[in-house]
Amino acid sequence: EDWKERGAAVGVKQEYDAEGRLVLKQVKKGVKDFAFGRTLGEGSYSTVLLATDRQTLKEYAVKVLDKKHIIKEKKIKYVNIEKDTLNRLIEHPGIVRLYYTFQDNSSLYYVLDIANGGELLGVLKKIGSFDEECTRFYGAQILDAIEHMHNRGVIHRDLKPENVLMDDQMHIKITDFGTAKLLPDPRVPKQPSTYDPSGGEEESTRAKSFVGTAEYVSPELLTDKHACKASDLWAFGCIIYQLLAGRPPFKAGNEYQTFQKIVGLEYEFPPGFPPAARDLVERLLVLDPQRRLSIEHIKNHEFFDGIKWGRGLWRQKAPRLK
Ligand code: ATP
């Protein structure tokens, strides 16, 4: 039970006092402050609703989690990890921002950035595959978001095109941090409650109770039951491949066969796969996580030539999808 902050939670509002000094005020919001609208989506433990802040008229996506269901399914830990992780990552444009959390007797509420453009997977399926320019742009945005979370001591562990949402500018927003791993935050002396002092003993449980798509799992998680920052870069390599090829590199009839292909590094490039992208993917889909390209090296790889890294990436207009 980590829901002690009953009632409402925190946002920060900037105001100026009579002398013109900036004052930061805590704002508490609760269910009554929002007008709820249509359902945006459903997860296994949640319903995501469109909601409008009655005061500011700003629209949000509110994730509503049923407490009874979460307790019954023993998911309390994941729900708290998601909250703690999102709270650590709030100031990056490529990560779904958590604005408020609150609860009532039956539910937990997470007030999030709304991502109206759907999942990257849906966008990709609609057009089949991306050209090099779109792959470069979306790849760069995803990498920039990964760099931010790694700098803050967060390993996502479940990066895939379903977990990359699109906003109304067709920029990406990474979501689904329920299975993230929190490392000590390099910038903060005091660590959050969900910092795992066992150093991730949970890994084996997670691997055994593995659900969802297997296609992006790193070989080290399968062989050593251990995920590290480089595991996210393996998934990143799979995503780059998928954007260009229209399908993930490792795909088989069932999970076991997919895992076999991953640990055997059995994949092929379709004809016409751009050579620079091929070189990048080959340097990411490397079995030994220590020998995988680092973020710094990926940014300097020729595939990303012409990308201006940093905040400019988020002010840029998204290329037309084709
Ligand atoms: P599961 O819990 O089964 O893994 P999930 O992680 O997709 O599913 P949620 O994060 O609750 O579960 O999301 C459910 C659906 O709601 C998503 O598939 C997506 O379509 C929609 N959704 C989630 N977050 C947002 C958001 N910030 N903006 C718009 N739609 C969203």
Describe the structure.
- By secondary structure, this protein is an alpha+beta fold.
- The chain contains eleven helices and eleven strands.
- The strands form four sheets. Strands 3-4-5-7-6 form a five-stranded antiparallel β-sheet.
- α7 runs antiparallel to α9.
- The chain is globular.
Portion of residues within helices: 25-40%
How would a textbook summarize the main sheet?
Answer: 5 strands, antiparallel
* Secondary-structure-derived class: alpha+beta
Low-confidence stretches: 1-9, 195-209
N-end to C-end Cα span: 48 Å
Strand order of the largest sheet: 3-4-5-7-6
Q: What is the total tally of β strands?
A: 11
Apparent shape: globular
Strand content: 15-25%
Rg: 20 Å
Helical segment tally?
A: 11
Q: What is the residue-mean pLDDT, rounded to a whole number?
A: 89
**H/E series, N to C?**
EEEEEHHEEHHEEEEHHHHHHH
How is the quaternary structure best described? single chain
Bound molecules: adenosine-5'-triphosphate
Topology:
Layout (H helix, E strand, L loop, with lengths): L8 E8 L5 E8 L4 E9 L3 E8 L5 E8 H6 L3 H13 L9 E6 L3 E6 L7 H8 L4 H20 L2 E2 L8 E3 L5 E3 L6 E2 L20 H6 L10 H6 L4 H17 L9 H9 L11 H10 L10 H6 L11 H4 L7
Helix pairs in contact: 4-7, 7-9
The structure holds adenosine-5'-triphosphate (ATP).
Task: Please name the defining characteristics of this protein.
11 helices; alpha+beta; 11 strands; globular; five-stranded antiparallel sheet; binds adenosine-5'-triphosphate
